């Protein structure tokens, strides 16, 4: 290569290097100016730059976080629900009326609100408080105690309607936001956590389990019941339902064990309530005692799991099928009743009008009966 070419290449390299250095200096100047404006114009948060070990101040007042956006989207649709429960007669005389409270959210521009059944159960009148503090009367359209869903309606103004998401797409670890009115006083409180798990089941102690629940560590307190659990897109993916502080097996106290009903379940129940005024459940027409291994041992029953029929209602599907007092139902369809498949949970996988086979024990012998399910609103 000639000396002339060598000098030419060398000159090009110098220009490239100078250009890069100039760009770095210019970029550094821009960053300095931005950071300097941020520090001088508003309070900031300190971020440690691990590569340099230096602290960088970033303006926090102008940051519109995803969580803030989601809360601003859903918050106006959230309401506080206040119910009045009649007083009761006690040994010392009648008690006065009591006030109960919970949360809910608008699902329709027509004034329909979804909440938990246990929030309004037993109330003689209900009112709602909007996010701006306005109070309005409301009426109960229908309830379903087994899914713990209730639908209310107000003829007053509807400030916003919540967008419903798809709870089937939830993944553990996903960030979620709970909005509600803990203790009925702290309206539209926002707490943040993650989806701890999905598909949880909790025994109600009343012969069935609440299934398919979303578990979250977002703080949920008394009064949050019925309020929305929201994803980062500002979509409601759950209806806050309950908390667990501990178990009857020990004295340990748990924190961060909140549960919500998947919004897909709530929407399905609410849609039928709006169509019929109630949620249709399959009906057999029996009274029964649930059997567990402890009960089976105490009463020397031939089945560890199932339900012992104590009464068969007249003109019911059970009487038409030939079910008798003393029969033990051990299976419904092809599903055995056991610790994880309660009688009602299995029954409610079917619809009114379905014909299926009941597996039973009668006088210690296995047999089966065909039954066509009826319809019940409770």
Write the layout of secondary structure elements.
Blueprint: H1 3-41, E1 44-49, E2 54-59, H2 66-74, E3 78-85, E4 89-90, E5 93-94, E6 98-106, E7 112-115, H3 117-120, E8 123-129, E9 135-144, E10 149-153, E11 163-164, E12 175-180, E13 189-203, E14 209-216, E15 228-230, E16 235-243, E17 258-262, H4 263-276, E18 281-283, E19 286-291, H5 293-298, E20 306-312, H6 317-321, E21 328-332, E22 335-336, H7 343-347, E23 355-362, E24 365-372, E25 374-376
Q: Outline of this structure?
A:
Strand 23 and strand 24 form a beta hairpin. The chain has 7 helices and 25 strands.
Q: Could you describe the 3D structure shown?
A:
- It is built from seven helices and 25 strands.
- The longest helix has 39 residues, at 3-41.
- It is α+β, with helices and mostly antiparallel strands.
- Helices cover 22% and strands 39% of the residues.
- A hairpin with a 4-residue loop joins strand 1 (44-49) and strand 2.
- The protein has helices at 3-41, 66-74, 117-120, 263-276, 293-298, 317-321, 343-347; strands spanning 44-49, 54-59, 78-85, 89-90, 93-94, 98-106, 112-115, 123-129, 135-144, 149-153, 163-164, 175-180, 189-203, 209-216, 228-230, 235-243, 258-262, 281-283, 286-291, 306-312, 328-332, 335-336, 355-362, 365-372, 374-376.
- The protein is globular and about 65 Å long.
- The N and C termini lie far apart (96 Å).
- It has four domains: 3-59; 71-153, Beta Barrel (Thrombin, subunit H); 171-266, Beta Barrel (Thrombin, subunit H), CATH 2.40.10.10; 281-376, Pdz3 Domain (Roll).
- Strands 3-6-7-10-9-8 form a six-stranded antiparallel beta barrel. It has a six-stranded antiparallel β-barrel with strand order 12-13-14-17-16-15. Strands 19, 20, 21, 22, 23 and 24 form a six-stranded antiparallel sheet that branches.
